[in-house]
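Run log, item B.
One chain of 347 residues. Sequence copied directly from the ordering sheet:
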Amino acid sequence: MGHTAVLIPGDGIGPEVSEATKRILAAAGAQIHWIERAAGVAALDQGADSVLPADTVNAILEHKIALKGPCTTPIGGGFSSINVALRKKLNLYGAVRPVRSLDGVPTRYENVDLIVIRENTEGLYAGIENTITEGVITSLKVATLDACRRIARFAFEYALTRGRKRITVFHKANIMKLSDGLFLKCAHEVHDDYSNDIAYDEQIIDAGCMRLVQDPGRFDVILCENLYGDVISDLCAGLVGGLGVTPGANFGGDAAVFEAVHGSAPDIAGQGVANPLALLMSGVMMLRHLAETRGDETCTVAADRIREAYNACLTSGHKTRDLGGTLGTSEFADAVCAQLQRQGAVR
């Protein structure tokens, strides 16, 4: 049994970490046929008339699954975020960011194991901005009943299927009483259907951030609206070693896109020093999704093997430079592939 998936290498270091990830997935026995499509600056460089070409979106809609490298988003001008556009076009409403401590990646915290779930389609990221008069700009925060209910249901279902025990909603409903108030109301109502299995609580986001850095172990699943989820997920990545060691996934009714959430790092592009681990871990999430949705247990086996292999590499000091090691992108992939071969020999 094999699966077809769309690969979007992305910009900057994207092609390098994508190639490393493809190689490792193949070495683990994952039978993936890749359909490569462009997005971002790479799409423009290839002659496309858009940073998100229609053939890229259509390919994901056709095959239902994609692995995406980082795409460049200009700051303060230029084209809009490819990530936001992709989520809107494909209605990828549920963002999932697992954050866990890794052996071999020491930080000031130990045994961090939490998940950030983020509503992905509205809030301030709806992108509704207007110039009222010279020097006065407004941004509209959008919250709808359907989207708030949908992400709450998604979060509780995700937590239930993964054996999680508590969902904490981060909010600012003390100030934004209508928009964040609606988000809280929906989460609370949906919890009634899961109260026998999953505990529920709420944190005003500023106090919640304080408690996160005091003791991340008190949190299990954190549910946020769009902007808060974006900020909180990066904060949580900092608890375990940074964006280079945290994967990401975006789920919708018709498709799922798995992505490295770090930037395209143009300052080191082409140097062969980027850490491919975030995209590799996202690829592992993709394999588990394939196992769950298509009943292919070979994907579970491959995912387990890859996780065991990169954990072994990190523990033994085979790390990229951002983690205090000496390996480049390809060399780290070589180390993980060699570990996979040793696993095979032992088994």
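Observations after the first pass:
- The radius of gyration is 20 Å.
- The chain has eleven helices and twelve strands.
Flagged for discussion on Thursday.
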